Amino acid sequence: MSAPKKILSTPIRDEDLAELNVGDVVYLTGQLVTCRDVAHRRLIELGRDLPVNLEGGAIFHAGPIVRQKDDGSYEMVSIGPTTSMRMEKFEREFIARTGVKLVVGKGGMGAETAAGCLENKAVHAIFPGGCAVLAATQVEEIEDAQWKDLGMPETLWVNRVREFGPLIISIDTKGRNLIDENKARFQEKKKPILERINREVRFIK
Amino acid sequence: MQEIADRDEAVRRLTDVMWKFTAYIGKRLPSDVTAKLADLRSKETHPLAVAVYQSMADNQEAADRLDRPSCQDTGVIQYFINAGARFPLLGELESILENATLEATRQGPLRHNAVETFDEKNTGTNTGSKIPWLDWEIDPKGDSATIDVYMAGGGCTLPGAAKVLMPGEGYEGVAEFVFDVITSRGVNACPPMLVGVGVSTSAETAARLSKKAILRPVDSRHPNANAARMEELLEEGLNEVGLGPQGLTGNASVMGVNIESSARHPSTIGVAVSTGCWAHRRGRIRINADLSYEILSHQGVAL
């Protein structure tokens, strides 16, 4: 890629995201907090306050492999995105309650999250799934760990990251949803292909 | 039957080989998958897809250099065993593989992925009730054991589905089922995927065969000509849909489609789909009767 990298820094402001469109590629420098199933449930369903301030922040749907070093500090070994759709049930309210601006994960999210992004000027971005060591090499330091009672995958790991990405914008602040649009296109393309295949697999005669 | 002089020592040796191999497959992809990904990457023309393939290649390079699990989700460990009835450690194999999982988890390291159902507690060891999962086939005359190790990650396991069709729905119904699963749920399973299809008699027989299908090499073909033709048609057709890496659209959706089959009841067609993500972490090792071994899935491995 010849164009200069577009880099977002935390705290992220509304105007940093206004010009971004689905399909754009950005990178993140600053703080990135892992936050997945149970952390969402605790905030939204159980009414507990998050132990990390996410105003203008970025979260990562991810459950990493972390190694504790002899001095007690943590080392990020492997940290790739998990399926974002699992958080769909909570994300709209999560965005409204926390003021988070960037939600990073894998695959698309649904209409509720898209509405949340539109209302609160936030975005969802895809980090390439399975690229967990690449991601780990972009984590400079684990600054904090909260809710460790949830175990390694679900702990809120507070990471300082540098040029973390590529992050592919999948929901923008105008409410466009790249993966939803793609899925509709895939469904449409499927019909004529299946008709053609079905003519050739009539093995029961 | 080959005699083993010191059984305890033999068990220790095989456990050592198997934990190292289990940890190894989390770090480096099998040779057929690596070659297929390079091929798909070289043919890709969509800019976003090209960028994602670049990240995938960078990631595998970093995992290799830093000796780390290439994906953080090292899955539930499953072993598919084809053991000769005269394999000298047949009776010990189950406990050897459980200990191999424990040690691979400590040394790998592997993420803790065994949650005891109903108690809903992560055991923290990757072992639990019936986990690691063992699938057995016995070769009546053999004296070696061939073991496929598979890391069943969450993302690639989620699309899994099985259904029993009425014969009136025919193989057309099979094709539709495969397309429905892949176009609706495949996006989240880290395409380009390896798609396994079981065509059989009931839900569970089809499901087992669909998983065995993704243990076969990426470019292999079913021995029956009709089934092989169907593999080709499904592969071409799914690629034409163009999910691309991560569902961002691209020239390919899948690394391949493998079908495994059995005879069926005249009134039923059992069909199932299992998917392997692009980071398809499986390995095949053959243990000979003298406990020497050969790694069949990866070239140039030193454990």
In short:
The complex is a heterodimer of chains A (205) and B (303). Chain A is built from 6 helices and 9 strands. Chain A is an alpha/beta fold.
Mean pLDDT of chain A: 95
Low-confidence stretches of chain A: none
| Shape by Cα distribution of chain A | globular
In whole angstroms, the N-to-C terminal distance of chain B is 27 Å
Strand content of chain A: 25-35%
Instruction: From the alpha carbons, calculate the radius of gyration of chain A and give it in angstroms.
Output: 19 Å
The tally of strands of chain B reads: 11
Estimate percent helicity of chain B.
Answer: 25-40%
What topology, given as strand order, has the largest sheet of chain A? 2-3-6-7-9
Instruction: Give the neighbour order of strands across the main sheet of chain B.
Output: 4-1-5-10-11
Shape of chain B: globular
Q: How would you sum up the major sheet of chain A?
A: 5 strands, mixed, barrel
Q: Which protein chains are joined by the largest interface, and how many residues does each one contribute?
A: A-B, 52 and 57 residues
Residues in β-strands, percent of chain B: 15-25%
| Amount of helix of chain A | 25-40%
SS class of chain B: alpha+beta
DSSP summary, beta strand count of chain A? 9
Characterization of the model:
The complex is a heterodimer of chains A (205) and B (303). Chain A is α/β, with parallel strands linked by helices. Chain A contains 6 helices and 9 strands; from the N terminus they run E-H-E-H-E-E-E-H-E-H-E-H-E-E-H. Chain A has helices at 14-18, 37-44, 88-98, 111-120, 132-136, 178-200, and strands at 7-9, 25-34, 58-60, 65-68, 74-78, 102-105, 123-126, 139-146, 156-171. Chain A has a 5-stranded mixed beta barrel with strand order 2-3-6-7-9. In chain A, helix 2 (37-44) crosses helix 3 (88-98) and helix 3 (88-98) packs parallel to helix 4. The termini of chain A are far apart. The model of chain A has no long low-confidence stretch (mean pLDDT 95). With 303 residues, chain B is an alpha+beta fold. Helices cover 38% and strands 22% of the residues of chain B. Chain B is built from 8 helices and 11 strands. Chain B has helices spanning 7-25, 31-43, 47-66, 93-107, 154-157, 170-185, 203-213, 225-241, and strands at 76-84, 115-116, 121-122, 133-139, 145-152, 161-165, 193-200, 254-261, 269-276, 282-287, 293-295. Chain B has a 5-stranded mixed sheet with strand order 4-1-5-10-11. A 4-stranded mixed sheet of chain B has the order 6-9-7-8. In chain B, strands 2-3 form a two-stranded antiparallel ribbon. At the A-B interface, helix 5 and helix 6 of A face helix 3, helix 6 and helix 8 of B.
